[in-house]
Amino acid sequence: MKHALLSILLLSSLRLLAADREAPLISNVGARTTISLDGVWNTIVDPYETGLSSRFYENAKPKTKSDLIEYDFDHSPKLRVPGDWNSQRESLLFYEGPMWYQRYFSYQQKAHVRTFLYFGAANYLARVWLNGKRLGEHIGGYTPFNFEVTDQIAEGENSVVVEVDNTRRADGVPSIHTDWWNYGGLTRSVELIEVPETYITDYSIHLAENRHDIMEAWIQFAGAIYRGEATIEIPELGLIQNAEIDPRNGRASARFPVRAPHLWSAENPKLYRVVFSGQGDGVVDEVGFRTIETRATQILLNGKPIFLRGICLHEEAPFRGGRAFSEEDDRTLLTWAKELGANFVRLAHYPHNEAMVRLADQMGLLVWDEVPVYWEMDFQNPSTLENAKAQLRDVIVRDRNRAAVVLWSLSNETPISPARNAFLKSMAEYARQLDDTRLITSASDKAEHPDDQHAALNDPLGEYLDVIGLNEYIGWYGKYRPEDADKMQWAFAYSKPVIISEFGGGAPYGMHGDKDTRFTEEYQANLYQHQIGMLQRIPALAGMTPWILMDFRSPRRTLVGIQDYYNRKGVISDRGQRKQAFYVLQKFYRQKAGEGLTASSAK
Ligand code: GCU
Question: Model pTM?
Answer without folding.
Answer: 0.95
